[in-house]
Each structure stands twice: as structure tokens, then as C-alpha cells.
Design a protein that fits this description.
Layout: H1 2-48, H2 56-83, H3 87-175
Length: 179
Amino acid sequence: MIGSLIGSALGIGASIFGGIKASQAMKGVKSNLEQQRRDNQNWYDRRYNEDATQRADAQRILTQTAEAIKQRNKAAAGTAAVMGGTEESVAATKAANAQAMADAASRIAVAGEARKDNIEQQYQQRDQALQGQLNNMEVNKANAITQAAAGVAGAAGSAGEAYDQNMLEKAKIAAGIVS
């Protein structure tokens, strides 16, 4: 009898202790996942809002294009001076070169938009994965609470039965009925 009561009490204590420890572990996991979501958001904010024209690769393209244009403009002016070219031909060369610079800037802008789309897609995939993990953790937490409650209820039920049996035995003894 007393062994059953002690066993039931230990069962209740173990269920409560297990539930507390599971809850603490889940809080740690949740904290980590929430930090990952904040890090993901910071990464997205930083990368999405970068100026595509200020990236090193874009600066290199713009510098190379500007240098090539400068050389072509210089060559066109030299050719016009030596061969007697017209101001219109020099102006046409300069206009074509300016268009080349505009095209380079336009290609950089288009590449920047494609890069932003890629960043947004990566962000959304990571965020969905992290949110899914948080949702699964909440489901697991609810299951752990249910299991702990069932363990406490089962142990309490066993304790109640043992107590009832003990009281029945005492009542039989008091009534003079020995089994």
C-alpha cells in the first residue's frame, strides 16, 4: 500500500519535473529560432537595400567603360584634328559613347533588380523554414504538456486507488472482516 502511494508520488514528481525540463529546453530552442529570424531579417534589410551601382563589380564595369569612352573620345578628337573631321562626327562619337555608358548603367540596374529578387526569395525561404520550426516546436510543447498532464493524472489515479484499497483494508479490519 505505502509502496504504491510512494510510487504514485514519485510518478507525479517525475512527470512535473520532466514537464519543467522540457519546457526549459523548448524555451532555449525558441530563443535560438527567434534569433535566427532576427538575423535573417537583418541580412535581408542590409542586402536588399544595397545600392547596386556601389558594389565593387559594378564600380569596376563603370570605371572600365568610362576609361574606354575617354580613350575613344580622345581618339575621335585626334582623328578629327589630323584628318579634318567635322565637329558633328566628334559629337556623334561622344553621343555614342555616352549611350554606351548609359547602357552599362542600365545593365547594372537590371542586374541589381534581379539580385534583389534573389535576395527576397532566399529571405522568404529561410523565414518560412524558421517559422515552420517554431510552429513544430509549439506542437511539440503542447504534446509534452499533454503527456506530463497524463502522467500526473495516471500517477494521481494510482495513488487514489492505493489509498482506497488501504482505506478498504482498514475498514475490513475495523469491522472484523479479515480477508
